[in-house]
Backbone:
């Protein structure tokens, strides 16, 4: 037994925590952390508590925690910058506070003078002790108070100023500390961003486009309000077992192949296809994006076409079949002969892992700081932990989007390893009940502490029946849901904005899929959804309520086809009401009773521009999918000025 | 990077766990642990999992876990004996199982012969590898199968027997292990016991009784079906500031004082009051209890009367006031001048702590293995951790009941430190809503893993208004609730069985409290509740459903004055229905729809003896508090024999 090894105070838990504190929570710059701590002590002493935030062994803040009830202490802090923090709670006995409180009870209970005098001396001793730790005016004031108490003056025993002075110099003897908890803070773009995906080769006006054609599209994309442009792989494409139109097993002459069949005699993961203009054109593309304030996300698919230089230079990095041939990707009976997966467990795995990590580093050097990682769930978790830890250490502003359309625990685990953006099941959650239960899980469970849903209504791999059969209204609905249910979302742009939704006959995929062919789009089509994209993205940018997901709360409606939800950030309150039926007019009342709306309010529809003045806490809505199935209300007080009415003119 | 340091498999969580695995879960002998494990792997491989139970570095069992759904594996084990265990989960890739499953898909998908032959060689290699690890017939069978596969025979590729053989010798290469989780297994009495508290000095027929008088009561107590007799402190009582009748500040001459004012010139915590017959009488008491199969629980109150030998021998163990006098117990403005608390943080605390621990050891040597610890929440948690760990190490069959009527987090924390029985808020939970919500918390939350509710309808300190004003019916109700809601309960017997319930005018306490005076009870009063106690305790013993709390489920009733609940253990099913209104007849229907009752059943009331044959899943009940407000049904199948009808004749 050693007195230094125990404290009368015990911290019983610290929240938030993920998996008992084993994994970090994540925030982005500007987002706060609400901490809840259980702290107890034997007997009747009062405690004080605080939270310490530490960045790289440097204390970067101490935040007070205050007693809520039942031995639970709460507080809030906002980490000052990007980085990997630890936070820990600390609690100690408030000796003078406890003394003052007990002394007041004694006096109130009619204690006799001898008892009062003895207790005043106890108080004096406490004050005299901290006086020794203080300097200047504080020291003098403490000594003076100690003397007053010592000589029988009761006034200081009730002074809040004296308590504050004591607390300022309290040595916090016997303080208890919690375990360290981990916190990673990302750049803001990790939690607030609108992504736009397109194929550079389909960005020309005629034939196979280049990255210069793609660069010419960036102005239009920026104008629509997007923050990130995401490109499928731009590397040379293999010819062996090249896939043809609509994933046919053999390409015809002149067919371009899938960009995910990476590598040819021209080069591999560190090369840019000459058909796209090569690395020079890529550099120009990055430069143009930078000028426009657009971030570029690159697709990282750790797999090779049979023609990839790795296959000949490093056959040891691939798994062999019993006959000695390299094992291509398959999920029996399906075969992907144009793709060789790496063998991450091969004998020489350290060299392979280093090489793969260097692919990220190669593109980081060329100005790419966002990566959409293809199928991370088919590579060892240990590889991601190792490589992402190393990459973040050098480049803490990176963003990694996990394309793991896998089972829930696998998706969650990838997020804990450092994928700070994740694809979700949103693409398949189309009914009101599905949306409500899924987003309750994403925003209210432990997942909300580390899993960042990046919502996509479509991808080159997925065209859901809802979009395929719901036409323009369905496209408006799903885009608005993605953009407002999560602060991060993305769209595979060209077919979506042109409301092209013909499905492949056998699969929930686009027909004439751009993965296998070059398409030409009319970027200036006046009937496209570009103005809608622009409107929605502007609403997002101008309303802080849509910059995070924690405040999300679904609102009861009287119609199962209409979903309604509210998000708030300080004074900014947004209510979205969406008719999920793309074919028929639906109407309902939305129950606003559970919300904390200001007394007397109006709803200003930022999509349609109309104003509504609900009577009471029930609001009637009628939504015609052929006109506009979506309303995004900003809640305004009734005393709003004329300028506010013109908010969205 | 070192291949031994990473596994493709990851265990994402193991449940049960308390506070992220920091604190142990508790069971008693015979109780099982249901384990749930999350385990994932990259790609499409199948996993197998198991749970290892380790007692003192010795493997004491390996239990299979089976996939439930969504990467969650479950299993159940029953630890073989008392002790401190760790348990940990392990998961690995089922290589041959995965191969068989993929091979079947290949064949079903119409794979060509060359592909089949290549894959058969892969399967043969797997089998040949484990054949090397097997011996005898298994080795031969494996080698034979490997050869068959090698030479192109597909039959073994579909054999479950071969898979079982492979799994038996699977080297489980690259298995992932979870952290260790802690499990403490107590003796059965820690989870199934009926306690009876009485004051030995009030057990005589005339004047101050002795432990020999108390020993003479033990037969009657055993006959009522109790398992544990709990005695308030039996030590010499101080005279300085001795309290008089009903806690009056000064005792009259001849008043006996409170047993909790421990210590006098006669001795302290290791002595027995001469008025009770001294240590010799105590030894005879223990001997008699042993003969009857009754366990004895002693009260341990770590505090001293001013006359305790410790006060003069070890003044350094007590806190001083500023005037140098020893600080008596107080909660301003209340003063307890007859009690000096120890200063657990004094400079010489190691000596104090050792001495206090030795008090437990002293009584353990004299045959006491159960301790009811007075106010543990006013002593440092670190002291309990240190002393209880040491005591359990030598005496793993001990039981410690924490008398901490404190705040929830403090009560919970004491349970995690080793108090394997705890007083609860049951005493104050009298309405149906209060009972339902409190017992949901106790039996369904994390608390159920370590906090053992020991329910007391009354104590010498507490006579709730419900009992004080509800008369005999209230006493029946609260006793039956305590005895059936929890497998461990206790009663402060004498006033309860005699339905003596006169309250102190100022407090929810008994008037003429036995804490301050000697009472004489008529142990043979034919109107006492002794037969009821006996009936209820017999029902408890004969029905395993009442030996645990995890199965507790409340049943909907149509009357807020009637509470109903079900408990089950294998075939044994018990349903309790209690009218909480001690004054008026109440009736209702009980909804049995949510229970899994056997098709066609009867309800046999083990209290009243009647049989009921509910039609459907709704059962009508009418309960007259003046007759019997409680029914405890055993669920019997309709095909029950005549002998079963006489179950409680």
Residues:
């Amino acid at each position: 037994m050693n007195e230094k090894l125990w404290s009368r105070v015990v911290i019983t838990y610290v929240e938030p925590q993920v998996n008992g504190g084993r994994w970090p929570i994540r925030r982005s710059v500007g987002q706060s952390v609400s901490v809840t701590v259980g702290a107890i002590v034997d007997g009747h002493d009062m405690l004080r508590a605080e939270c310490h935030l530490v960045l790289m062994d440097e204390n970067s803040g101490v935040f007070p925690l205050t007693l809520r009830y039942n031995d639970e202490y709460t507080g809030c802090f906002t980490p000052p910058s990007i980085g990997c923090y630890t936070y820990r709670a600390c609690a100690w006995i408030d000796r003078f506070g406890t003394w003052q409180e007990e002394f007041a009870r004694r006096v109130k209970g009619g204690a006799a003078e001898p008892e009062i005098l003895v207790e005043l001396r106890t108080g004096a001793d406490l004050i005299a002790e901290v006086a020794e730790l203080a300097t200047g005016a504080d020291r003098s004031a403490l000594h003076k108070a100690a003397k007053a108490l010592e000589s029988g003056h009761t006034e200081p025993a009730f002074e809040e100023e004296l308590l504050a002075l004591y607390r300022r110099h309290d040595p916090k003897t016997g303080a208890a500390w919690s375990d360290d908890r981990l916190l990673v803070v990302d750049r803001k773009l990790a939690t607030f961003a609108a992504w736009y995906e397109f194929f550079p080769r389909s960005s020309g006006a005629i034939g196979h486009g280049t990255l210069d054609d793609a660069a010419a599209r960036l102005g239009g994309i920026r104008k629509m309000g997007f923050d990130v442009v995401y490109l499928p792989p731009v590397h040379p494409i293999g010819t062996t077992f090249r896939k043809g139109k609509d994933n046919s097993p053999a390409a015809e002459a002149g067919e371009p192949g899938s960009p995910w069949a990476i590598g040819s005699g021209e080069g591999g993961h560190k090369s840019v296809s000459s058909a796209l203009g090569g690395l020079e054109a890529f550099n120009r593309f990055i430069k143009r994006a930078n000028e426009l304030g657009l971030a570029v996300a690159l697709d990282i698919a750790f797999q090779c076409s049979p023609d990839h230089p790795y296959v000949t230079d490093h056959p040891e990095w691939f798994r062999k079949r019993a006959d000695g041939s390299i094992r291509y990707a398959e999920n029996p009976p399906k075969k992907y002969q144009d793709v060789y997966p790496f063998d991450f467990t091969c004998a020489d795995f350290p060299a392979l892992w280093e090489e793969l990590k260097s692919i990220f580093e190669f593109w980081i050097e060329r100005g790419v700081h966002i990566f959409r990682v293809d199928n991370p769930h088919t590579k060892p978790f240990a590889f991601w932990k190792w490589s992402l830890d190393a990459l973040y250490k050098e480049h803490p502003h990176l963003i990694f989007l996990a394309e793991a359309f896998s089972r829930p625990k696998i998706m969650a685990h990838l997020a804990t390893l450092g994928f700070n953006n994740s694809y979700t099941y949103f693409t398949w959650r189309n009914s009101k009940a599905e949306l409500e239960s899924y987003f309750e899980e994403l925003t209210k469970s432990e997942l909300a502490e580390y899993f960042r849903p990046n919502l996509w209504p479509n991808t080159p791999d997925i065209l859901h029946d809802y979009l395929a059969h719901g036409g323009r209204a369905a496209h408006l609905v799903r885009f608005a849901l993605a953009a407002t249910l999560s602060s991060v979302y993305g769209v595979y742009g060209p077919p979506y904005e042109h409301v092209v939704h013909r499905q492949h006959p056998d699969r929930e995929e686009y027909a004439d899929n751009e993965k296998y062919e070059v398409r030409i789009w009319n970027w200036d089509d006046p009937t496209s959804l570009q103005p809608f994209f622009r409107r929605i993205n502007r609403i997002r940018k101008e309303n802080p309520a849509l910059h995070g997901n924690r405040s999300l709360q679904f609102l009861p409606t009287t119609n199962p086809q209409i979903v309604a939800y509210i998000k708030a950030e300080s004074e900014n309150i947004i209510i979205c009401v969406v008719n999920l039926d793309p074919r028929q007019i639906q109407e309902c009342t939305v129950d606003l009773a559970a919300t904390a709306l200001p007394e007397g309010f109006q709803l200003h529809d930022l999509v349609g521009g109309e104003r509504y003045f609900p009577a009471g806490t029930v609001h009637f809505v009628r939504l015609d999918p052929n006109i506009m199935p979506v309303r995004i209300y900003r809640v305004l007080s009734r005393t709003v000025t004329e300028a506010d009415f013109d908010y969205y003119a």
Q: What stands out?
A: The CA atoms of residues 38 and 70 of chain B lie 9 Å apart. Chain B touches chain A through 60 residues (CB under 8 Å). The first strand of chain B starts at residue 9 and ends at 15. Residues 465-485 of chain B form the longest helix (21 residues).
